[in-house]
Amino acid sequence: MPKTFTAPFAQTPKTATAVATAAAASLTTDAPTNTVELLTAGADGAILTKLSAIPRSTVTASSLVLLISKDAGTTKPLVDGALMEAITVNVTTSIPVTAFERYSETTPLRLEAGDKLYVGSQVAATNGIVFHAEYTDY
Fold first, then answer.
1. What is the mean pLDDT of residues 101-107?
2. Across the strands, what pairs with 132?
3. How many Cβ atoms sit within 10 Å of the Cβ of residue 9?
4. How far apart are alpha carbons 42 and 111 in whole angstroms?
5. CB-based contacts of 58, cutoff 8 Å, min separation 6
6. 38: helix, coil or strand?
7. Cα torsion 22, 18, 132, 81: sign
8. Which run of H or of E encompasses 15?
9. What count of other Cβ atoms lies within 10 Å of the Cβ of residue 51?
10. pLDDT by residue (tens digit) across 25-59?
11. What is the pTM of this model?
12. Nearest to residue 89, comparing CAs of 112, 57, 118?
């Protein structure tokens, strides 16, 4: 993007979802397995303002992870995590939302052009954990 003296503002609100079922592994390296692509930042970058997850069925306590890739998914360093508490999901219970609390309208995660965000759970969930992101492309 050429340099300008006009302030660029995020312009295109978007949402993204991804479902993780297999247990994310090898997080001690920059090449973890069993992660799922959540979103790709636009041509001028993006800001992530909300990230949360909900289980589709009963789960044990699960460590949820957020990873970023600058090379189309070859390397994916760990950048954040959240703990989803154990819950028995049935027709008479509310499904709790697990939020990644570092990100908001006032404290977004800034992404460069083409950055990809990946998510995962370190505990397998047969029916999946649904991740939901709210972000805005510049």
1. 95
2. 17, 52
3. 7
4. 9
5. 87, 88, 89, 90
6. strand
7. positive
8. strand 12-20
9. 26
10. 999 999 999 999 999 999 999 999 999 999 999 99
11. 0.92
12. 57
